[in-house]
Amino acid sequence: MVRWCTLNTNASRPVKDYFENINKAFESKARLGIMSVLMVEDRVDFSTLKDTLQLTDGNLASHLRALEEAAYLLVEKQFVGRKPNTTYQATKTGREAFNEHLNALEQLILNNRK
User: Fold this and answer.
1) Which one of 61, 85, 98, 101 is most buried, counting C-beta atoms within 10 A?
2) Structural domain of 29
3) Angle CA(11)–CA(14)–CA(15) in degrees, nearest 5?
4) Phi, psi at residue 37, to the nearest 5°?
């Protein structure tokens, strides 16, 4: 089923302004989930993210890599006992970008409700 929606064109801002701060890095459900978890938790390991978001190893790894390349994540690799352990933390830049993204989504919704 296809659902169509229209933006409130009587709003004081042009429609394109609502999309200026929507960050393409957070468009996927997986990346939105990763950043949401990291905004609440200071550090999270790979296994916890995988279990929480119900993603495969490869899918999660590719999304984490993209966020790391955008400088939105810090990655720390260490050994706990003899086992490798990788933890992730949102950077200041990542937190700011994610908050801007959420604010843009919120404004889009609030300013276009019927």
Assistant:
1) 98
2) 24-91
3) 90
4) -65, -45
Distance CA 100, CA 39 (A): 13
The span from the CA of 53 to the CA of 9, in Å, is 36
Mean pLDDT value across residues 18-31: 88
Domain with 39 in it: what CATH number? 1.10.10.10
Within a domain: residue 97?
A: no
| Amino acid at site 10 | N
* 42-100 tens-digit pLDDT: 999 999 999 999 999 999 999 999 999 999 999 999 998 888 899 999 999 999 999 99
Q: How many domains does the chain have?
A: 1
In this structure, are residues 98 and 90 in contact, taking their beta carbons and an 8 Å threshold?
yes
- Per-residue pLDDT band for 6 (boundaries 50, 70, 90) equals very low
Structural domain includes residue 3: no
pLDDT for position 5: 46
Report if residue 50 sits inside a domain. Answer: yes
Q: What is the rounded CA–CA span in Å between residue 45 and residue 86? A: 6
Q: Is residue 75 domain-resident?
A: yes
